[in-house]
Amino acid sequence: MSTAWGSAFRDRARYEADRYGPDSWVFVRELLQNARDAGARRVWLSGVRSGGRDRVVCRDDGGGMSFDHARRYLFTLYASSKRGQSRSAGRFGIGFWSVLRFAPETIIVRSRPRTGEGWQVRLAGDLEHVKGEGAIMDPGTEIVLERRAGGPHPEKALHQAVLRDAPFLRCRGGKERPLEVLVNGRRVAVELDIEPPRMSFRRRGLHGVVALGREPSVQVFAHGLRVREAAFLDDLLLERVGRPPAAEGLAPRFILDSRDLSVMLARGDAREDRALRRLVAVGNRELNRLIRAELDRHAMLSLPARVMERLREAWSASLVPRLAVFAAAVAIGAGGSWYAVQTWSKARASPTSPTPVPVASQPAPQPYRDLAKRYSGPGVEPIAGQRSAIDLSYRPPAEKLFFAALRLTGLNGRGEADAAGAMGDVHLYPEAPCTEGCLEIELTVNAEAGLLRLPTATGHVLDAASVRFNGETMPVFLTADGEPVLRFDAPRTGRVRYRSAPGAVEGAVRERHWPALPPEAVGLALALDDLPIEDRVREALGFVRSRVVYDRSPAVIERYRAEREMGAGLFSRILAVGAGDCDVQNALLAAVLSRAGVSTRLAIGWIGVNGAVLPGLHAWTEYLDEDGRWRVIDASAGGPVVERSDSPERATKAAAPAGQATFLSVRQPFVVYAALLVLAAVAGALLVGRRAWQRSFASGGQSDMAELLRGAALRPQIFAQVRPLFRRKVVPLLSGRAVSLDGARAERHQGRLALGSDRSQMAIRASRKGRVVLDRDRAEGLAVGEALGAIDLDWWQNLLDAARTDQLAARVEKAFEGCGERVHVRVAANVGEATAVLDGSRLGLGRRSRWVVVDEGSELWSALKIHAERSPNLAALILADAVAPRLGLAVDTIGRCLGGLAVAVLQEGAEGGP
Q: Are the beta carbons of 607 and 402 closer than 8 angstroms?
């Protein structure tokens, strides 16, 4: 092997080695990584200092390598890509040349594959001389480094390097058992553990521990190989920052080891990708679990709460409950699908008639009679004699229509219909020949002498020339309410045929009055006056549906009777009861829209489906749109199917042929059960396929909760993801209750957070007034109070008990009292600051409980005493000027309070002049 072979990559190898930093023992990490990726189960490290020289040996029992493999990969750079090898600790097979950081004088590399001859290469430290030769050894690889003695002892340095960079290194393989590392024959074994309180967690490919300690720290490992450190968990996704200074209280500590991290090329770092973000999310979640466990332990959960916690943990950590849920879901889905298929098969096999089969309890269609004399107005009671459908048919039958037989543009003051009043003023129906979209209608009538309204679909215009009664042409008239009518001189029975088509009726419809609306409905209508018609209709519909529900029960009927006997108006009764049937709901809707400036009518009639009308009367609202056509809006749509209030949606289903209805009734459940079965299979695969978690919680001491709360109060940003820590009421109060950390912080921002014990009368008074007074005698209360800077009422009580009055202080008190401010000024020793101020009014101690205590040992008091001997008013002015801003007084108030003292100072100066 020539010297030129070593010189070709010498400079580049040294340059790459320099990227590892000043640590000369970083090569231990790289050698262990290469041994692990080569399949080694055990690595022997040896460090010896003898005869003025250091000798380091690294030997493993891996598969070894041929010389050609070593020349292509071990002795080159960037050549050994490990992309796609999920079990490798790095992405590239580099790192061997980090041995140059050790500054060796001799490098020996020997290896032997499992099949083949061994080989050995001896290199000088400067890589100028290279010698290759054979070697007799067991399969594996051995690297020997020699240099002059210097620095720490090799054995100690090797041990420290393993503990720092590869304490949890695991073998390559499915089970990833720990890789055994021995230093001078002694095994280096480290457990992934931290002092409690802690939560250990494990999952295939990931394990770690989160704990609470004095300083925050995060250590991230890949296959047990150290790749990154940070102070806080979120720092892993940011640029590296320095560790913050230590603070009181507990902070999170993490050790996380994952095999999914992508290790970067030469920095021994983890790439910021999805795997790292997922690791951060897992760490935050486990921190939540740890703190929630500590909170639960502190709060001493009830039995049901403990059971729920155990179930939650079992669901996460065991496959048994997930398998049970999956099996139950599959059984339900399979059973339901089988039942639906059986029912469907029977229904398909049974003969069905193509036309509806009459039901025995349903009366046959009856001839049509005018409703004017039968409908008295909105009410919950049914209309007599109108249980069956009328004998009306239309073509084409595909369209669902609303056939109105009675239209009301208003009601009288008692809320009654006056349909006969609109019949006195009639004129010939305007000609409107049907050209397209024509609807052919045929109707059996039983007409009395007089006028008979013809049922027409909402939004349609009658073709007057098409009307035939028993084959004879008859004139058609139009009422003031916009209704087409026929005139009979005597009672007649027969068939009426006519056509209609969508269109707008010529001429205006007479607007009649509705009963008075309650104030809230009037306010709504006035607010809608400026909106487009479509928006007015939508808002009014929402108001009615939210205030009046569909209900025709006997209890509702009785409540309407009681309200009517009490003299309440129609719409006042409706809103008071809050329930009613279709004409009650739609009468209120029509009145509100009319008050909002929209032309409306209350329509009574039948719903047409499949060419015929359904049994039972229905009521809806018609409004005149901007295009001049009447539109349908129904406040009771979706209500239950009852005698005279069939909803259009349900009525359509009821009118389907028997065979078709049976087919739909079984096909829909079949589709639903089949979909449930598919969803159950997918959910089961996801649930069962998820890797189970194994967790172990180790609680801490009695003071841990107090220190945890102290740390969260001082550094809330590092616990921002743990919302239970801030929302649980775990901070004890003097009253015996508790407050959350968020609640205590909010009180602190308002200047109302206090700390005290039952030894202080001030604390007892504030607590009785309902103020937040943290219990000083409880470690948690004291910790939070000190961290948040709560007002210490015990300290104030002792201070005021030892304080004394003074002439100067009395003069200042009098000055403040003269401007309407009650302030107690006292003098005491060992106050800790020049002036201490307490505004007791914020703590419920009364408006007169504002205290100012001056430290008699302060420079301020010494200067005031000197001034007081010559000019007591000037001394009082100086003290008042120093105190006033701290009392939170307004600027004009301060001016009034100090103005009197200023005048006194001027007078005092004038009197003392020559």
A: yes
